[in-house]
Amino acid sequence: MNLILAPMQGLLDPVMRRLLTDIGGYSECVTEFVRITHTLHSRATWRRHMPEIDHGCRTHAGIPCTLQLLGSDPDNMAATPAGPLPPDRYMGWPLYPWSIARTDNPITRRREQAIRALADALCQMPPAARARIAGINLLGEVHHLYPDFEAGMGAGSDYVITDYSAASRQGFSRWLARRFAGDIGALNAWLGGAPFASFDDVQPPSRDIRRQPLAHYWQHLDATAHGLLPVSGWAHAASGPAWVRVYLNGRFAARVPARFMRQDVAAARPDLGTAQVGWRYDLPFARLPAGLHRIDLALEDGPRLIHMGTRHVAVMDRQQSAPRPQPMQAALPPMQPAGGSGAAYWIDTPQDHAAVFYNPLAALWHAWRAEQVVAYLRHFDALLERTCLAGVPRRTQQIYPAEKAGWDGTRFASEASLKPFGHVQLGINLYGEATQDDSFFDWLARSRQGRYSVTEFHPMHAMSAAELRRVLLRHQAHGAQTLSFFLHPPEPARQAGQGAQAAQPNPFAFDPANPLHGSDALYRAVQGVMGKTGKPDRPQNMP
Of 34, 131, 181, 244, which one is least surrounded by beta carbons within 10 A? Predict the structure, then answer.
C-alpha cells in the first residue's frame, strides 16, 4: 500500500515535509498549492515553495515530492480529456505543460516580452557584430505534452494526449469548417456517415471504445485510431546488416532495416556486439477490409529467410462484429526456422490477435494538433520579422520522433513542424544513431528537405576526432548549415543530506568532466576536429 503525505495549506511546508518523511512510512509527498496566475514564476519562486527541486524532486529522506499547481488562469495550461495536465518531471526537473492552443495567453505574452528584449539588445549591436549571427532558433522544442512524458514516449494501451482545452476544441471546429469549406455534409461524408449537424457539434475524439462507452463511433481514440499500426521489434543477422520483411496475408508489404538503436537489447544481449538492431514498420490498415488479417515477419540472413513469427490483427468494424479470417492472397516464400544460424530477433508489437479501430476523425484531430505546433512557431517568427533581425535565417529546434523505433509521434504532434513552412528552415535535435545513421538521411530525402540545422547534437557514445569529422562532413554534404553541440554549463552544487555535492553537468553535455554517454570523449573529439586554435583543422570545409 502506498501512503501519500497530502498537503495542508499553511502547515505542510518544506520543513514539515522533511521532518515527517525523515520519520518514514510515506511513499510520496505533495507540496502546498502554488498558484499559477498571469505571470511565469521565477526559479527562485519554485525553489521557495519546493526546495526539493534541487535534490531531484526528493526530500532529505529520498521520498519523491510533487509540486501541486493551482491554475487560476486555465488559459496557460494544456488539458487532457479529464482536465488540465498536471506538472511532470523530466531528467529530475519539474516540467510544466503550458498550452500552445492560443497566443493571447499570459505565458505567450511573457515569451514575447523576452524575445523583444533580446531583439532590442541585439539590434543595438554594431552591424558588423550582428552579421556574425548565423541563425535564430524559434523557442526550443515545441510539441504537445502528455502524462509521464519522460517514460511514456512509446505507444501503449493507456493513451492520453493533449490539448483538450476550450481554445483547442473550439479551434478544431473552426479548422474543420475551413478545411471542408463550411460544408458539414462534406465532413460527414468524408467520415463515412457521421451524424454531425454543424461544425460546433464536432468534438475531438477522446474515448477508447474498449474501455469507455461512446455516444457515437467518432468519439473513439487510441494509439492506432488514425489508421497506422506499429509493427516493431529487434533483429540481428549473423551474415551482415539485418533486414526484416513484412508480409500481409501472404503478400509482400515492406522491407525495413533493423538499425534503430536499442540500448535495452545491447544490455541484455552484449554478445550481439551492437545496439543497432531495432526495426519498425507502420502498417496502414485504414483501407483494409474488416476482418482478421495475418502478418508474417521474416529476417533476411544471407540467401535465406528466417521466419520470425506470425501475428493476427483484427481490423474491427464500427459495430464491433466478430472478425472473420481474411483469405491468403499469395503463398509465402520458403522460410526456415532460426536453427543454429546465429540470428536473433524479437517482435514487440503488435500482440497476437490485437484489435484495431480506424476513426477518420482521429486522423483529422492529429492533423489539427500538428497545425497548432506550426501556428505557435509562426507567431514568434512573425514577431522577429518585425525587428532588425528579419534578415537573419530562422529555424525550428524540433524533436525528431522517428529516431526511436518505439516512440509514438502522435503524442508529440510535431510532424508538420518538420516540413518547410514560410521561410523558416528546419532545425532538428538529433541524438544517438540519428546523428549518423542512414535512417535520418533517408527521411531527409523523403521529406524533400534542402538546408537544415542540427540544433542539438549528441551521438550518445564515444567517438574519435576522425569518426566525428566523418559524421560532420556527412551532414554538411546533405545540406546542414549549422550544427550545435550540446554544451551546458555545470549545474550549481546541490545541497544534500551529507553536504554539498560536486557540480553535476547536464547528462548530455559535451564536458570533460561528464562520463555519461561518452560525453567526455566527445568533448575531446570536438577539440581534435576544431584544432587548438578553435578553428577547423584540415580539411578546411568543415561545418
Answer: 181
From the list 410, 416, 418, 419, the residue with the least C-alpha distance to 362 is 410
Instruction: Specify the pairing of strand 251-257 against strand 243-248.
Output: antiparallel
* Residue 95, burial from CB neighbour count under 10 angstroms (0-12, 13-18, 19+): middle
* CA distances in angstroms from 342 to 282, 324, 337, listed in the order given: 27, 38, 11
217, 259, 456: which is closest to 358 by C-alpha? 217
H/E stretch holding 178 reads helix 166-179
CA 431: distance to chain centroid? Answer: 12
What is the H or E stretch that residue 17 is in? helix 14-23
CA separation for the pair 140, 112 (Å, rounded): 14
Nearest Cα neighbor of 383 from 169, 176, 113 is 113
188 to each of 182, 195, 348, how far by Cα in Å?
Answer: 12, 7, 36
Nearest by Cα to 355 from 249, 223, 206, 254: 223
How far apart CA 103 and CA 75 sit, in angstroms, is 10
* Cα 438 to Cα 441: distance, rounded to the nearest angstrom: 5
Q: Residue 181: which residues within 8 A CB-CB, separation 6 or more?
A: none
* Alpha-carbon dihedral sign for residues 504, 508, 512, 515: positive
What pLDDT tens digit does each residue of the chain (543 aa) get? 678 887 776 677 888 898 889 888 888 888 887 766 545 566 677 788 888 888 878 888 889 888 776 655 666 888 999 888 888 877 777 787 889 999 988 888 889 999 999 999 999 999 999 999 989 999 989 999 988 888 777 756 689 999 999 999 999 999 999 999 999 999 999 999 999 999 999 999 999 999 999 999 999 999 999 999 999 999 999 888 899 999 999 999 999 999 888 888 988 999 998 888 999 999 999 999 999 999 999 999 888 899 999 999 999 999 999 999 999 999 999 998 877 678 899 999 999 999 999 999 999 999 999 999 999 999 999 999 999 999 999 999 999 888 777 889 999 999 999 988 888 999 999 988 889 888 889 889 888 888 899 999 999 889 999 999 999 999 999 999 999 987 776 555 443 433 334 445 578 888 888 898 899 999 999 999 988 544 444 444 433
